[in-house]
Design a protein that fits this description.
Structural Genomics Hypothetical 15.5 Kd Protein In mrcA-pckA Intergenic Region, Chain A, Alpha-Beta Plaits, 3 domains, nine-stranded mixed beta sheet, four-stranded antiparallel beta sheet, about 25% helix, elongated, binds uracil, rRNA pseudouridine synthase activity, RNA-binding, RNA binding, EC 5.4.99.-, PsdUridine_s_RsuA/RluB/E/F_cat
């Protein structure tokens, strides 16, 4: 890869901005000052430094966002704020996008990356990636609902794969329930529709996990962080380049 592209990919600015750094003799390649933007390097082997500080090349970026309510899971939208608006400049520069969608009024774990192969693998129906949600429900859910979830709920347009419904709390006085639901597919409004098929209504929905990734309790709604090395390693199960 050309050195100017490499430097731009490392987040040091646009291609023309990094040319300025080269001109100023601030960049070294394998210890030697380099001024040519055309110099070809091997990003996995060559040691590149700026002002003596080694650079780390990142092809793919991974962000864990605690999505708040009120923002859409898209990269741009005419009416609403998007999840990309909540990330940093680097994410936008590297064209990060959300892996799947959460409804505008759903909050919780959302992975964003520019690794298309990973996104494809995690969203593929063949991979049966488990997604766990915490739902506050208006109405009392019971064992017959759990059995219906386990059997495969029939919606108007499709029959859901067997899913797990765990009842955490039931408030008889308020006629509401707190439940944990695990599904391994991701159809439009799926959880809300499954609960509706049981004659109840989701009033709050939070995603707790997706495959090996869990919501980080330290992240406030709207906050994000990069994946930690062990979380990135956990994504190796998808068998794609990370
Ligand atoms: N199911 C839903 O109904 N909404 C979501 O945002 C995610 C799953």
């Amino acid at each position: 890869m050309r050195l100017d592209k490499y430097l731009a990919d490392c987040g040091l600015g646009s291609r023309s901005q990094v040319k300025g750094l080269l001109k100023q003799k601030r960049v070294t390649v394998n210890g030697q000052t380099e001024t040519s933007p055309k110099r070809v390097i091997d990003e996995s082997q060559t040691k590149v430094a700026l002002d003596g500080e080694p650079l780390v090349y990142e092809k793919y970026l991974y962000y864990l966002l605690n999505k708040p309510k009120g923002v859409v899971s898209a990269t741009e939208d005419k009416r609403f704020k998007t999840v990309l608006d909540l990330l940093d400049e680097r994410a936008r520069q590297k064209e990060v996008f959300p892996v799947g969608r959460l409804d505008i009024d759903t909050h919780g774990l959302l992975l964003l990356t520019n690794n298309g192969q990973l996104a494809h693998a995690m969203l593929s129906p063949k991979k049966h990636v488990a997604k766990i949600y915490l739902a506050q429900v208006s109405g009392l859910m019971d064992d017959s609902d759990s059995a219906y979830f386990a059997k495969g709920i029939e919606l108007e347009d499709f029959t859901c794969q067997p899913a797990h419904l765990e009842i955490l709390e039931r408030d008889e006085a308020e006629q509401c329930s707190l439940v944990k639901i695990t599904i391994s597919e991701g159809k439009f409004h799926q959880i809300k529709r499954m609960v509706k098929a049981c004659g109840k209504e989701v009033v709050d929905l939070q995603r707790l996990s997706m495959g090996p990734l869990q919501l980080d309790g330290q992240l406030q709604r709207g906050e994000f962080r990069r994946l930690m090395p062990e979380e990135r390693e956990a994504l190796e199960i998808f068998g794609v380049e990370l």
